[in-house]
Structures are given as C-alpha cells and as structure tokens.
TrEMBL record:
Residues 15-301 form the Sugar phosphate transporter domain. The keyword Membrane applies. It is a multi-pass membrane protein. PANTHER family: SOLUTE CARRIER FAMILY 35. The keyword Cell membrane does not apply. Its main location: membrane. Pfam families: TPT. It comes from Stylosanthes scabra. It is found in: Membrane. Keywords: Membrane, Transmembrane, Transmembrane helix. This is GDP-mannose transporter gonst5. The chain crosses the membrane at residues 12-31, 43-63, 83-104, 134-153, 159-182, 194-211, 231-251, 258-279, 285-304.
Amino acid sequence: MEESLICQWSVIRSLLSILQWWMFNVTVIIVNKWIFQKLDFKFPLSVSCVHFICSAIGAYMVIHVLKMKPLITVDPEDRWRRIFPMSFVFCINIVLGNVSLRYIPVSFMQTIKSFTPATTVVLQWLVWRKYFEWRIWCSLIPIVGGILLTSVTELSFNAFGFCAALFGCLATSTKTILAESLLHGYKFDSINTVYYMAPFATMILALPALLLEGNGIIDWLSTHPSPWSALIIIFSSGVLAFCLNFSIFYVIHSTTAVTFNVAGNLKVAVAVLVSWLIFRNPISYLNAVGCGITLVGCTFYGYVRQVLSQQSPAVPGTPRTPKTPRSKMELLPLVNDKLDDKV
C-alpha cells in the first residue's frame, strides 16, 4: 500500500513538473511575441538584455538570499576561460531566437528550432569527427523532411526570420557541444548556469543594444499610448524567463530522460496551438503536417539516442554513439526555451 502511494505521488509529481514547465515556456514565447507584434516593441536585443538582467538577479536571489540552491564554486580563471565563451554563444542563441520571433510566427519558429538535433549531429561529425551509428542518421530524416515541408508551405514566410531561426539552431548546437568540453568537471544545474552566464551575457549585449536600439526605444516611448504598462509587460517577460529556468531545474529532477524528451516535443505542439489561438496566423494543412512530422521525428531521434546510450560497444575500442545527455547541460534552454531553446 505504501509503495503504491509512493508510486502514485511520483507520477503526480512528474505530471505537475511537466505542466508547470509547459506553462512557463509557452507563456514566455507568447509574451515575447505579444511584445513584438501587439506592443510594437521591435527591439529584440533590448528584450534579450532585459531577460538576462532579470535572470541574473533571480539566480542571485535563489542562491544567496533564499538559499534554495547551493552555489557551485568556479575558479576565477575558469570564469573567463570557460564560462565567458559559453556565455557569448548563449547570448547569440537567445538574441537570434528573439530576432526570429519578431519576423516569423511562433509555429514556424518553434518548428525550425526542432532542427537542432540535426545541426548538432552534423556539427559533431564535421568539426569534431564524432562517430554516429546509422540509426542516428536515419532518425534525422523525418526531422529534415518535416522542416523542408513546413518551410515550403509556410504562408507567413520571412527570409530574415527564417535565417535567424536557422542560425539560432546552429548556435544552440555549438553551445551544446562546447558545454561538453568547456564545462567538463562542473556539474551545473540550470540555476547555477544562469547565475554565471547571465551577467556575462548582459555585459556582452548591453552596448550593442544601446547603440543599435537606443534611439528607437526613445522614439517608441514618446509615441506609444501606454508606455508604462507596456514596460511592465516587457520586464514581466524577463521575470517569466527566469521562472522558466527554475521550472526546467524542477522537471529535470522529477522525470526520466525519455519522459523529458517526449514532454519537450509535446510542449512545442502546445506552444504552436496556443500561439495560433491567440495570434491566428494562417497555417495550411501541409504546413501543419510538416510540423507534426518534425515533432514525431524529434521524439524518434530522442528514443534512438536513449536506446543506443544503454548499449555497450560490440567490439572493444569501438567508439560509442554519444550518450543521451543525462547530465542535462544540452537539455537546458537557458532563459529561452527548448532553448533549448526560450524563445
């Protein structure tokens, strides 16, 4: 009886963790799109900077004030030699995500972001010469096919937004790969990751945001009918972005790798549906089919990696397929989603 209650509580806890993760993730995406489209705040660099600042403050509060998480100590030299390069790629990743969100619908952007597994495998193969079994390559076929079908049939296609989302996938893959080498020896959770990277990202992005968007923001403040209420929404998106990182920490420790993979792809479907209900961007039948094929492909890819990670090499010395990242570094969408990829 007691074991049954424990099992039931474990299932309920996993379900609640997934639901709160979905809620924060979808809310961040929708609020960011609302900022760009409804508030006419066309400044993705500044929005990203607000997210970094709020995340840095939130991580500091959780670690030093509320003491909900212990601080992982990093050597000062490693902060510049390891953390700073990661923060630079992290910054580019988040900015490109917000830039793409300004120009293309949420549904299209989220589908393109699902291309990340393919770019990760190709980069590891081309640059790092990593070995992958044929099953990994085959699992990428529906992802690539779904992305192509979605792109060709997208009714609100924008070349600049498409390129920003695609390069965002490359940045996410680069961050994932660099994390394996640069952060080796440090077992970061999502809160400590944000604690160290968000201040660096703010430092990197603050000056470009000021120079490129400062005058535009001043004009926006002088012409917008309700600037103060709009600013509250913009800074609220930063708070929600930090809450998303905290929710990721919770869901990672409450679910298995397989559940996390499936829930992550279902989360994309939820985000697409909610964004369509709110913004009513036109979606053709073939476009929806392409999105569905991509998500099924991502789920299948995660399943193949999970299966291969549990198998031992048949011949001693044979290189193994890289394991499904149970360390979770490459599953952490810092500040934005799926993240990875936030928005």
